[in-house]
Amino acid sequence: METTEPVLLIAGCGDVGSRLGERLAAAGWRVHGLRRQVAALPPSILPLRGDLEAAQCPADWPPGRIDYLVYSAAASRHDEAGYRAAYVEGLRHVLDWLAQHGQRPRRLLFVSSTGVYGQQAGEWVDERSPSEPSGFSGRVLLEAERLALGSGLPASVVRLAGIYGPGREWLLGQVRRGAGIDPQPPLYGNRIHRDDAAELLAFLLEADARGEALADCYLGVDDAPAPLHEVVAWLRGRLGVTGEGAERIGRRAGSKRCSNARARALGWAPCYPSYREGYAALLDEA
After folding, report:
1. pLDDT for the residue numbered 1
2. What is the pLDDT of residue 234?
3. Residue 207 region, left (φ>0) first, then alpha (ψ -120 to 50), else beta?
4. Could you give the CA distance from residue 73 to residue 12 in angstroms, rounded to a whole number?
5. Exposure string (b/e) for 226-245, b if CB count within 10 Å is 16 or more?
6. Residue 66, Ramachandran bin (φ over 0: left; ψ between -120 and 50: alpha; else beta)
């Protein structure tokens, strides 16, 4: 007998996907997590071993209906071919596998990145702003977004900012080593705590399940974009780091301030509204 609870497939069920799956499994959803190494999945997520970059459908593909698909892949190779394999070809494979089994999800959420924006001068951007990335990663993600939105399924793109949290402590490591940063010109960055990223995805899925209308794109960011030198100065104070070594903190391309107003208007709010709350929680857990 077919189950009545919503059925979710998370394709590329890594860190954020696992948090999402745990959250919705606790709310009574049936959650399948597709990844290469299923031993890393939490026990509340049904394991589905598969390779998104392979054309062959996983042998244990779940029968019955799939109500929701979250595509949350991560590139294993950081070149253009690797990005295309993970985001474009991988999504195409999953859409093919669904079609092979006669499954038509009620909504597809494609997890993308604010890296699709190429603004350089600290401009405020939202879902309506031009997305003109300068690098291959943003261009490939835009190609994958177009595939998702043109798939024939109701679809929304969720552009997440830089994710930080447990296990994502690159900046903390550099600050602890005394790495320096040039304050001028200010480099505005955007971020979201891992738990808030998962909660936003869960919020959107639950809103759709209640029959609420979703837009085709949302920005997943906290409330407070900030210059990187400000974040570094605050972390130094919390960590008691004094002085500055020869190492420099890398300045990523782009400088923009992303707005989460559309997601907030739907009723979502981050638990960690700025880097201060998020990093304070991370440091308190250490």
Report:
1. 44
2. 96
3. alpha
4. 4
5. bbbbebbebbbeeeebeeee
6. beta
